[in-house]
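ESCALATION

Customer reports they have been waiting on this structure for their group meeting. Please prioritize. Original submission:
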Amino acid sequence: MTTPRGVFIETFGCQMNDHDSAQMLKLLGAAGFHAAPAAEAADVVLVNTCSVREKPAHKVRSLLGRYRLLKKERPDLVLGVAGCFAQQEKGRLLEAYPFVDLVFGPDAVAKVAELVERARSERVLDTRFLDRQEQPFVNELALGEPGQVTAFVTIMKGCDNVCSFCIVPHTRGREVSRAREDVLDEVARLASAGVREVTLIGQNVNSYGGDALGRAFSGLVRDVARVPGIARIRFTTSNPWDLSPHLVRCFAEVPELMPYLHLPVQSGSDRVLRAMRRKHTRAEYEALVDSLRGARPGLALSTDVIVGYPGETDEDFRSTLSLVEEVGYAFIYSFKYSPRPHTAAARLADTVPEAVKSARLAELNAVQAPITARAMEATAGRVHEVLVEGRSRNDPAWMSGRLPDFKIVNFPAPPRVRGQVLPVRVTEAFPHSLKGEVVLRGDERDTGAFRPTEEEPAGEAPREDPAAAPVLVELRPRRTARRMGS
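Update from on-call: job pushed to the front of the queue and completed.
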């Protein structure tokens, strides 16, 4: 492709989808594409989709209706649908939307430039799952963007657990792990480009390497910690059943591994957990939480909770509420159950009325809200080590970063501190973020931790930003527009 053309990617879903979109942008950039500020200005529009809940699927259908008008105005526009919803629907998308040129699943991301080129002259469908030996874990484009401080690193894809409500095994396939050497090579490249924190991602990272004892993943975490330049390590998402004692020990013995973990529980009722085909009981989950916090005191936890699963009774729901109160999550991601195609639960009668689901969801969030507030308020007045990630969303004169336990804090500081780990005292807590100030230690000239000067004005304290709440793999589906270099 010798003539520069614009590409615009609209992304729904989790961090895995965000990462796939970023890889597609890099691959298309290498093929001669440039950034398009909006779909209306692009020559190629790709919608990277999610299917873990019904709501994002509805949004995709609505968006395609709008893009139909755009395609009618500009017949040469290449319009494609990628991701999990594309994998779920396959050729049915081409039948239902005759103006769509290209449909491809997650395993075809590495071929995006080739597929787009083919779609200029024919309608293209590529939703084949690749053999394990063929898995296209993209590594040659692993260098971070200029000034990038944090990065995702894919270590595996797919899931073998087949929970009754979950469509991931159908849309992402069976578990396939990436070679340890390739992962470490990518981490080293990112570190050499200035990345200080990496998040190891996969649908079930604890199963990395196919090792039932969990030594492969815990060993990988220790290896990543030894890469020069890497100051912080996180990972997501974890199935409780597969979280091994070896990994628990990492929280005690690897200082680079941050004291935060997303540990989906889904329900506090053993009866519902069995129906969901979860392999853990409530007691086993509680014991795991105790073990983790014993290894790393102060470790913050988040979780996923589904309310209104078929057959869930008031007693089952009360068990979930009691678990949430007992564990004391920093925050939760809660959903009303919606049946997904190709899952075992989809064959069950959806017995919980929608009004009951909504009431339970509201009550669950009301129980969690003060727990989250206490967790945020507990940080006030204390000094925390903060990795400075970049400018604040709401005021470019302020910087933003995360505490080790993943809470986000905004504070006045000059841009040159980006990428540094600085001591920040939290001065005020909000529902989703914190306000703070850099603590000067007498070595400001070495650390760059300067208070703003007249040349670097402090600006006004950023307003609380609800979007600061983190969004992780398996979590709340969202929609983002991705552009080259974003």
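Sent to customer with the following note: The chain has four domains: 5-131, 137-258, 265-377, 383-468.
Escalation resolved.
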